[in-house]
Request: fold
Amino acid sequence: MKTLYLVLTALVLVSCEPKLVEKSAGKWYQENPPQLSGQKFKLGSDEAAEMVVKVILDFADMDKNEQIIENMADSVRFFSPEGYQKLDMTTTDVLDSFQQPFDSIKRVVVSAVPLTFGKGVVNMVDVVFRERRFKDGAVNRRRVFERFWVNSEGKISTINIFPSDMASSN
Reply:
């Protein structure tokens, strides 16, 4: 009889186990690349989001370019308001050139949302942060939205940047 109660109790506990339902929302409207057109978004990996946030903060530190390179594909597609560039990320030269105009950079990350499509082959992390760039006593403040595409090896392969200058009172 005790065995019957144990079996019934085990069945009840197993049947009460919450089931994870993978939700999707929104969709990719652009036809480029065609394999993403119409695909719905799902939440991506926290590890990708944490890696991207670390890269963003390390860039502002200006001493950690070697660590940043470890998280980058050898060639990174970079889209900014100035246009498209293909960046060679096998050395720190590109990062140094982006940092060179400034005495220091301070960043505060507001949010990082990892997203994926379909079977999780395509991953991206959308990040919002505030930035202050200092040069010769002048301060440039801006809010930034960046989208980082993370390849199947877990390396950043594309960066899209959408900055917005802030009034000096912000």
Notes: The chain is about 25% helix and 40% strand. The longest strand covers residues 104-117.
